[in-house]
């Protein structure tokens, strides 16, 4: 049995299949960890979701910002944009099934895996974990978001989750603002300050950080007071490099013409498939 953590697929179905063939993935023995953004921007969102749903028992998946955006469009709280590539999903006969399933996906996953003979605790989210959150904070806030998506306030959350403010807990003046901030931490974060103030405007490389900002993983992360290893996607410009031995970037920019990568958690071996077309 092997466990493979995969970065943002974003509808790059052909590359996903080639990558799974390369790692000789078998559903009777192996597991996939997918860090979110299963669909959108790539050419085959419907095929990708069909396939991932078919092997869902073999997957641990965390929600990404594109997955949430798809939910908002499908539920009628947001209009589809020119850059969205999931119209075929919206017209799928299985749409209701997929919506129910995606709403039930978590915002984080934590599990112990034996890595080179030593038990290691892996923590996966889509975009990362803010510096001021402990492991308990992550579990609490992530679970709250999942419960809200599944509950009677689901539509209200999808309608109001967009926006770059508030960018710090001290700025939140309502429950929905606090939930929006936590969604941004878990699915959109790149640069922030040491106290967790977000900059969601800049999307470049780490050396392009705005004044007083750093990549979130360059701060003294409270969650790393526990012996954990963080896995995340979302930030293709990193090209899989963080410079932090306890934090691994999984998004290697397949949808932008680069490659789709998988990390085997048992031995740290990396497999990749270059963009096909």
Question: Key features?
Answer:
277 residues, alpha/beta, Purple Acid Phosphatase, chain A, domain 2, five-stranded mixed β-sheet, four-stranded mixed β-sheet, 8 helices, 29% helix, 18% strand
Protein model, in words:
This protein is an alpha/beta fold. It has a single domain (3-274), classed as Purple Acid Phosphatase, chain A, domain 2, CATH 3.60.21. Helices cover 29% and strands 18% of the residues. The protein is built from eight helices and twelve strands. It has helices at 13-22, 45-54, 65-74, 87-90, 95-103, 135-150, 154-160, 175-187, and strands at 3-6, 31-34, 59-61, 109-115, 118-124, 191-192, 198-199, 214-215, 228-232, 247-249, 259-264, 269-274. The protein has a five-stranded mixed sheet with strand order 3-2-1-11-12, with helices on one face. The protein has a four-stranded mixed sheet with strand order 4-5-9-10, with no helix packed on it. A three-stranded antiparallel sheet has the order 7-6-8, with no helix packed on it. β4 and β5 (118-124) form a beta hairpin. α3 (65-74) crosses α5 (95-103). The chain is globular and about 50 Å long. The two termini are 31 Å apart.
